[in-house]
Amino acid sequence: MFRISIRCLNNPGNVRFPYNSEIIRNWNHIPGSHPWLNTLMLAVGTRLRHACSVTSPRPTDLAESQVAQAAEMIAVSPRPVLIVGSQAMLNAAEIDKLAEALNSLGIPVFLAGMARGLLGRQHPLNMRHRRKKALKNADLVILAGMPCDFRLDYGRSFGSGTKILSVNRSKTDLRMNCRPDQAVLSNPFLFLCALAEDSASESADWQPWIQELNNNDKEREKFIAGSSEQTTEFINPLFLLKALNEELDDNSVIVADGGDFVGSAANILQPPGPLTWLDPGVFGTLGVGAGFALAAKLLRPQSETWLIYGDGAAGFSLQEFDTFVRHAAPVIAVIGNDAAWSQIARDQVELFDDDVATVLGRSDYHRVAEAFGGRGFLLDKAEDIGRVLQEARQAAAQGVPVLINALIGKTDFRKGSISV
Ligand SMILES: Cc1ncc(C[n+]2csc(CCOP(=O)(O)OP(=O)(O)O)c2C)c(N)n1
Question: Is 157 touching ligand 1 by the criterion CB < 6 Å?
Fold first, then answer.
């Protein structure tokens, strides 16, 4: 997991699924294994190989010849929207160039996946909320390293006459679930940088459109602020996340691993800069948290590394507090402890009227950290949030890994979100 994390930080998107193909290949030679079981294992192996090996997109160069055409398309669009996905972040060493390119393009932008934070905490072009509404009202959507998958409702999020410009390194992702008006097989990083330099990109007046999207953002912020004030049992998770957002300094790295708590965090926390948000990827594969956090802390020791955990997700890698302590990696973990796999329970209970296998305990996770030599805090009252976050930061600054076990209540903030 650690090696994967290091690779991911240096080259996000280049991760391979770590299933052990050797086991499957050698299954036939295990004494006593049954012939039908062999066949089954072979079938499973083949499927796994297809389903799970996330092969790196080919390192496609810049499709220079298509830049001018894209620039023309953009120039005549009164309501363009740009979505930048994780794939555009692969040129990690020169990522500031991409931020500059977005800045000079002047197109309102939604940052998805690992692109979160690319434009800093507050940027007038960076829209954070109501993406669906924006896509419905846009006349041009530019997908830069972002497939048209379930996050875009398989293309149903677009308005009926919306033009699509898709830029992707993968032939499959380029046209996935949509027929782009212009499909550019190219490195989206290089393409956006070239587009920004193209002198033909004299834009239409986008100010009214940007204003409309900013208003959508503000409306949603207001809604979140209202929801964070609602009384819940223990701490309102939105209130906690808003307080944490205030506490984050400009040198923080955020690692997310969980379900609903982390989904809310993605709405509320503002990563301070490029490559400061690490998450489990599009399918939210739980368990990446400690590995990612360890890699982040070791690569950027001066940065505060915040590991935002669901309590269920924490179960996959909490043991790594031992590693954090032994290798002097003072990560600060915050567990949103709602004693449940809430993201799963949310739909399961509604559909089947049964919470089986989604219930956890309000366990003393902070004691696990302490048992390994870290510092643990039990946070069960909203009025203690400020003090605990401060003390946690101080302990981490002295080299001690910290775990905040935050007891949180339930809200319906994530109702209607997809569970995977
Ligand atoms: C490896 C893996 N197993 C199962 C899932 C399905 N899954 C998605 S969210 C979730 C529950 C997560 O619970 P928790 O971390 O406590 O977050 P909460 O939703 O309670 O905030 C599960 C099991 C997954 N995404 N990845």
Answer: no
